[in-house]
Structure to design on (836 residues):
């Protein structure tokens, strides 16, 4: 089967001066992928007539589905709608159901008088299919030309998502024959990208041509993603599952999850499965481990709390790090994190605890303990394990790496205990 | 002076299936903007020879600077380097300084043996200028053709940023005539974008045509940025400084900083000036306020620590929230945050404290306390001030808004005390 390609065009000067991060395209790509549409390009252009016109021209040569977001708001700098009208040779006319919808929003929800600018939002080219925007005033529009479809959506994320889910995504399989796409992702830890490649070389070479492997390294983790496409869903799933099992075997002890989830969720899942609780005693990460763990909904089921002991006196008073340890070995030492982890476990009455202390930079390093020196301890009721790290990056990355490694170190303790 | 245009090409299937959010382009666009280069397009393509080739072809018709990120890792799915070699008609050869650098990383930092794949990273086309990658093994490459430059950078954000800062951004003004661009940014808080626009309307209208004003709203803050461009640096700076003073006057009491710094730095600066210390007692933000405050180098001068009291028992035991409060008013209540802030101030022996408790969602809301309900208290030795908020976003954004508002609320307490 021929592949069905889509291209995403995002419109807005704010994307070109780096004022906003484009999360719309990411979401749209995910959704399209799930229904077997392959996004072949993403293009961002400014609020300029010629640029938008050219982009639509060019992308329509490459894809059958062209999704356009942005440039539909009520302010004067929006030119997308008149441009689309001209591009597809239509004339603007008032769309009564949209006008009723906009009027209703102003009368009953915003409780503000409508101005001309708002009324104009209900005007659409007469040659488009209007896509109802339940969450806002600017309607979506769908144009057909030469067997391709062109969909224009507002740039406000929740409005765009609403129209995509209700209107666009259900429509595509009725207009095009789509193939199935399946992904499987696993997470590895503790092995570099190139060594991992050596290790799984045979498995990679044995992959059939319609199953691709990608390496996605990030902060010491390497994700491996298999992507398969084909016409028979059942066969495809069987094939990719088979290859995925082979890949997991090849990865061996470096495998930490067979789903694409962050480390804090790997740890969170392990804790949930065991009905176990955790607390943290953080110095150099300054609350970042706590933040990661609590960023996940439902984390109160296992996360109890943290003592962020940035100052030494807090380590001494609240976490019972002894004066001798501070004096003789310093706050960044094996003894300090052992005492922190033990006291944290007791004080918070949890099954596991993590303690970290280190020098994140740019200042504060010494010859004996340069910037990037980190001690990590993880504890349960029976044991305390420690590990020293030397990171050599900037402050932000040192903090992230310390947190990720601390979580991974706890993961190892949990799994060994199992 | 003619405008200098750049186009950014990002390579990687992960961008087209929505597996990662493209933050590289955003950062690059910001940086280019600061040196007077206008990004005209951003394009994302997959790891496909033809797609990459075509994208380079097309973008070079539209811009003088073509920045390419991604596709340079050591694994097999990377095709960018051989493609660039062929595109610009070179041959691959070993680059000794890069080989020395890669060898050094393996021998002294990673302490792992190098394999062929790693050595290959030091091979580059013989017709490019090699850009040293201090933070990784894949070098950047710069090609020149028809008066345009083509820069290929690794996709790992900190490696890309390192090469951009050290090599690419300083080089551009030496290769092209760029006009001087000066920016001045101020931060406002507590006034909406449209009201702010009314307030500063006269100042805005009085701006000369070569000085532009932009509104950058984010999480309750509105940044105002003046951008001036011209050929005489000294005149330009005088003019923009003059307009910036007028703008500050017009903004009046809503001004919180005359630099583009985050709220945690505004607060950090105020504390440093006063030689004052702070501690935090966090429930719903789960350590995020501590993380923000400690993300800044030198924060140990004012930040002492935090009790992250996610579980109620931690609030009761460590922060002395009374059983009556928990029973009668709940953990998300004015009384709870008052007790948390007071005990935190005492326990950590700081000049100021912040306490927050709320429901971040998606679950845990009730009719009386829906998701987004937050109580914030800030304290010094004389008083405790409280404030209730109702946010209506997703968990991530609710956490960010709670943290930013808590920091701003403390800022108000500090400034009034002064």
């Amino acid at each position: 089967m021929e592949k069905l390609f889509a291209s995403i065009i995002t419109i807005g000067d704010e994307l070109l001066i780096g004022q906003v991060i484009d999360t719309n395209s990411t979401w749209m790509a995910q959704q399209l992928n799930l229904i077997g549409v392959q996004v072949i390009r993403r293009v961002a252009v400014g609020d300029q007539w010629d640029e938008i016109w050219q982009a639509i021209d060019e992308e329509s040569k490459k894809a059958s589905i062209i999704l356009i977001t942005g440039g539909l708001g009520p302010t004067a700098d929006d030119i997308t709608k008149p441009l689309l009208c001209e591009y597809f040779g239509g004339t603007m006319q008032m769309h009564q159901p949209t006008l009723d919808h906009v009027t209703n929003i102003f009368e009953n929800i915003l409780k503000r008088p409508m101005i001309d600018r708002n009324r104009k939002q209900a005007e659409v080219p007469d040659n488009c299919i209007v896509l109802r925007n339940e969450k806002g005033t600017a309607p979506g529009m769908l144009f057909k030309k030469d067997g391709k479809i062109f969909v224009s959506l507002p740039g406000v994320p929740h409005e765009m998502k609403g129209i995509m889910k209700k209107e666009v995504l259900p429509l595509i399989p009725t207009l095009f024959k789509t193939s199935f796409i399946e992904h499987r992702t696993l997470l590895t830890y503790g092995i570099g990208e190139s060594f991992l490649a050596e290790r799984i070389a045979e498995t990679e070479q044995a992959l059939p041509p319609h199953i691709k492997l990608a390496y996605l390294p990030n902060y010491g983790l390497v994700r491996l993603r298999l992507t398969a496409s084909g016409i028979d869903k059942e066969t495809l799933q069987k094939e990719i599952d088979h290859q995925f099992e082979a890949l997991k075997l090849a990865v061996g002890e470096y495998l930490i999850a067979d789903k694409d989830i962050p480390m804090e969720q790997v740890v969170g899942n392990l804790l949930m499965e065991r009905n176990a609780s955790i607390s943290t005693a953080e110095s150099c990460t300054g609350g970042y481990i706590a933040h990661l763990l609590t960023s996940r909904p439902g984390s109160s089921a296992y996360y109890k709390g943290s003592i962020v002991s940035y100052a030494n006196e807090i380590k001494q008073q609240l976490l019972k790090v002894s004066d001798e340890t501070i004096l003789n070995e310093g706050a960044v030492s094996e003894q300090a994190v052992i005492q922190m982890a033990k006291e944290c476990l007791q004080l918070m009455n949890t099954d596991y605890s993590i303690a970290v202390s280190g020098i994140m930079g740019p200042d504060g390093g010494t010859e004996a303990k340069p910037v990037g020196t980190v001690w990590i301890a993880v504890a349960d009721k029976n044991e305390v394990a420690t590990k020293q790290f030397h990171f050599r990056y900037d402050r932000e990355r040192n903090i992230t790496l310390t947190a990720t490694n601390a979580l991974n170190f706890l993961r190892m303790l949990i799994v060994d205990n199992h």
Chain B touches chain A through 86 residues (CB under 8 Å). The first strand of chain B starts at residue 4 and ends at 11. Chain B has three domains: 4-175, 180-257, 263-417. The radius of gyration of chain B is 26 Å.
